[in-house]
Write the structure tokens for this entry.
Amino acid sequence: MPHAMTIEIDNLHYAWKRRSDFQLNIAELKIAHGEKVFLYGPSGSGKSTLLSLLGGVLLPQQGRIRILGKELTSLSSVARDRFRADHVGFLFQQFNLLPYLSVIDNILLPCRFSKLRCQRALQTETSLEKSAIRLLSQLQLDTGLIHQKVTELSVGQQQRVAAARAMIGQPELIIADEPTSALDSDRQVAFLDLLLAQCAASNASLLMVSHDRRLATRFSQTLAMHDLCAGVNPTMPFSS
Amino acid sequence: MKTLLSLAFHSAWNRKGTLMLMVVSIALSVMLLLGVEQLRAGVRNGFSQSVSGTDLVIGARTSPIQLMLYAVFRLGDATHNMHWSSFEKLAGRPAVAFAIPISLGDSHQGFPVIGTQLSYFEHFRYGDKRVLEFMQGAPFADIFDTVIGAEVAEQLNYSLNTEIILSHGQGVHRLAEHEDKPFRVVGILKRTGTPVDRSIHVSLAAIEAIHLDWQAGAPMPGVSIPAQYVKKFNLQPKEITAVLIGLKSRSGVFQMQRYVNNFQDEPLLAVLPGVALGELWSIVSVVEKTLLAVSALVVTVGLSGLVAVVLAGLGERRRELAVLRSVGAGPLLVFMLLAIEGLLVVLLGALLGTLAVVAASSLAAPFLQAKFGLTVVFSGLTTQTQLLLAAVILAGALVSLIPGYRAYRMSLTDGLMPRL
Ligand SMILES: Nc1ncnc2c1ncn2[C@@H]1O[C@H](COP(=O)(O)OP(=O)(O)OP(=O)(O)O)[C@@H](O)[C@H]1O
Ligand SMILES: [Mg+2]
């Protein structure tokens, strides 16, 4: 890796348009390469907003965001989309999958937008399909499901398909927004283990958001929203 | 681009139920719009094909359009006749190349009967100056001979030597029959695509003969003249309905028209077929324009419905669009995805509607001819129809930009976790 830091934030300020009651201010955040970071905070504290900023889907009004040494804020909108496709895998709480595509097509979706991830997926396997199947088996999902409609899968199976999609083509950064909260507690732990193992195997950094602080023990680093924001915005209403 | 189209297609297919309804509604509205236009062009085409090479149509004084309608198109009844002596005077004018007398009033199974002379088969022209040709047989020679048009032969399944009985008056409801004097089919004309196909041609003498024992439109009580004796009577016609005149030189047409319109013996009217048709169209065009406007409105309603449906679907698809954004899709792709969906529906609807119109045209022509005696000639999609079709597709493409733009705005402001 040419750059030791996966995420660097400087003096970030973001407010939603036409919403005066919320703003996100982060003086500094650095996450080194290969870290597994757990981020928690109360509802409405701006966790999801921060993740959208890190993906370059939203642009901050002030400050700088650097991912893998690349300054997102100085990139064009097209270049940001391209960068996200190449280097970041996203995983959400629910409804991660496109209902009209099969399991395999959902997993391979990032490869349609990123040549880089397509190439990487083909480095270890002879075909994209094989690459997807390997990921699925590592995530302990029945590989016979690949041509199934995703709407026929259970929620737990859907989350593992979404994880496979986030990881196909080995992006350097995996961002997960409460990926476990739709699962029951036994499955939460199992899913998290698989996710962490996969990130370790592909040498990716992981930033995961959750309400559930019991899960934090498995991570190499734990961050609280109010600590991130504290330095700049001591009067944040939700500081606990 | 491949990704975009495949996503748009799969996504649309996933919601095919709603979208198919939209396709159907657009197809129907396109069908209406194009159908009205095709019909308009077809009717005009049919009318203007019906007569050519005739310089003047002459009859008892009435309105030019009415004269054209009954003398050439065999629609409606003549109110007055003209004297045979007038015909002879007109036909004898030095400028006249040919004069075809026409005597109307009888019918057979709803098909009009035309009393005329052999000059009809020689001089009558239709379409692109085409002559009448015989499929079978020859012109009438004997008094109770008849020559029938192709449509008559086909619909009633008549062949040479079939005996037919004429009825007095028009229409299928038989007023009275000339059953004592049956006619024999001696000739069947080739199809022309004009009212000739629906006509039953007999000699003027035959018209005279079947009405020998008639008076004031009804059989004379107690009088019956058997068919074999009619030749003993004077069968010189006293009256005819109209005359089609061809001049030796077209340049004399206005002079001849003036001569007829100022005719000494009785009030007559001479019209130039082209001019009378133009007059007819200017009256009909108000109706045509109204019909076109109404169908254009229906298309507008269809397109608005499409926009409403795609916009309504957008709410449910926010999550889908955010997922696409997260894997690297740009706002432009989101825009195109929605715009393409609308366009896809419009294109499919327009295609189905056009196919339906083309299919309906081939069915409509025989139906209109059989049902209303209206000769409609469809010749593919007219330029005007093609323009309308292009306009619908263009309008569809434009309105599809609306949901596209909405989705574009949304994908810029939503972030990756849209609040539903
Ligand atoms: N698309 C949006 N437009 C306007 N305001 C938004 C939008 N998304 C979120 N917000 C606002 O931004 C604030 C932070 O929301 P955000 O979703 O980032 O919180 P969160 O920490 O992820 O909460 P949760 O734990 O419930 O997911 C909230 O006040 C929310 O109302
Ligand atoms: Mg959130």
Summary: Residues A 47-48, 177; B 417 surround magnesium ion (ligand 2) (CB under 6 Å). The interface with chain A takes residues 3, 7, 10-11, 13-14, 319-320, 323-332, 413, 415-417 of chain B (CB under 8 Å). Chain B has a mean pLDDT of 88. Chain B has two domains: 2-47+285-416, 56-271.
